[in-house]
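User: quick one - fold this with 2-phosphoglycolic acid bound?
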Amino acid sequence: MAIVVFDLDGTLIDSAPDIRATANDVLSAMDAAPLDLAETISFIGNGAGVFVRKMREARHLPEAREAEMLRLFLEGYENAKDLTQLYSGVLDALKVLQGQGHALGLCTNKPEVPARAILKHMGLEPFFPAVTGGDSLPLRKPDPAPLLATCDALGDGPRIYVGDSEVDAETADRAGIPFLLFEGGYRKRPVADLPHAASFTDFAALPDLVAAHA
Ligand SMILES: O=C(O)COP(=O)(O)O
Ligand SMILES: [Mg+2]
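Assistant: Sure. Structure tokens for the protein plus 2-phosphoglycolic acid:
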């Protein structure tokens, strides 16, 4: 039995359209132009605070407005669910892994409240007895502490991290945990640039990769 921990945005769920809609509500309140999807994706990965800072800078809004922008963003984030989709094959892969007796966890930079809200909305909550959000601990990814804490909460056994981004690859590397890279998410650089044990495009391949690398 292994400890298999997942990233959330860009790994299990394609949430960028909802993040974009939430962001655009904030920008509209600031009388600023909306984000397109590619711009939104380029700001995802380091949590809500960094997302809002990048969005403010991109629209040349004063730093003094950032706290208000973050407050509005977090207010909308919890309800950002309707445009989000599970990536193909995710549910089956989670069922297979759980059925094989692996312990599954979630370690995301999304704040814990919206992370838990979207897990519930997607019916994924029962798979994940351990959930760590970007604001759950004093440090967030790429610091290894949240990933290590998530693993520790799940017990003993070989560990694996599954994610989509540069941040995830660095986190796993620093934690000394093998990293499986989902190629279909919000990565900014080529697959070869990210340290990883294996990469995959289809979640049907995941159970075999876990067996091979745990
Ligand atoms: O909220 C973010 O910026 C990224 O979230 P993730 O860690 O689940 O990819
Ligand atoms: Mg991600």
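One thing worth noting: The domain at 16-77 is CATH 1.10.150.240 (DNA polymerase; domain 1).
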